[in-house]
Amino acid sequence: MRRYLHDRVDARLLLGGRRGSGTDAPPGVMEEAVMAIEGGRPVYVAGGFGGVTADIAQALGHDDGSWLRLTPDPDAHGPGYRDHYRRLTELAAAGAVADNGPTAEENRLLAISHRPADIAALVTVGLGRWAKTVPAEQRPTTRP
Fold first, then answer.
1. Whole-number Å distance between alpha carbons of 97 and 78
2. Element of type H or E holding 12
3. How does pLDDT run across 78-93, given as a tens digit for each residue?
4. 8 Å CB contact between 27 and 52
């Protein structure tokens, strides 16, 4: 299902999500983040609700998470979490995170926001800017 959706969307908004799955599999939201970034799609990380999305915001360098009073521990949630967290930090360090439209400050605000109206406004601004810079025929989608 995740692959099917990935192939049909232009961007991904991440919210919440469990940190651990009780298995060796990565959290679904984290798997979707890696898939989207590797596919060149813009990712909008609304980490204010906590969960694995707050960890993703930290891995991508959008926010340090000091407001949350929890720090991601890649080894505490199983190998799937650990491997995907490390992959996200590698992608961020390599500059592989697609320009999603918002400024660095707007991405930081999105990363700490828990207000639906603020999230909607920041994502809408980001999508609008992103759409202006990427011609429709070059957007990373496989829709017919």
1. 24
2. strand 12-15
3. 888 889 999 999 999 9
4. yes
For 17-33, how does the pLDDT look when each residue is reduced to its tens digit (9 = 90+)?
888 766 788 888 999 99
CB 85, CB 30: distance < 8 Å: yes
25: exposed, middle or buried (C-beta count within 10 Å: 0-12, 13-18, 19+)?
A: middle
- Virtual torsion, Cα 23, 43, 104, 58, nearest 10 deg: 0
With tokens 């697609």, the residue in question is: 98
Q: Please say whether the beta carbons of 45 and 110 come within 8 A.
A: yes
**Sequence-ordered list of residues with C-beta below 8 angstroms from that of 35, at least 6 positions apart, any chain:** 2, 3, 6
pLDDT above 90 coverage of the chain, percent:
51
The single-letter code of the amino acid at 131 is: A
Residue 83: name the closest of 122, 123, 17, 30 by CA: 30
Contact 85, 78 (CB under 8 A): no
CA distance 92 to 98: 9
pLDDT digit string, tens, across residues 89-132:
999 999 888 788 899 999 999 999 999 999 999 999 999 998 88
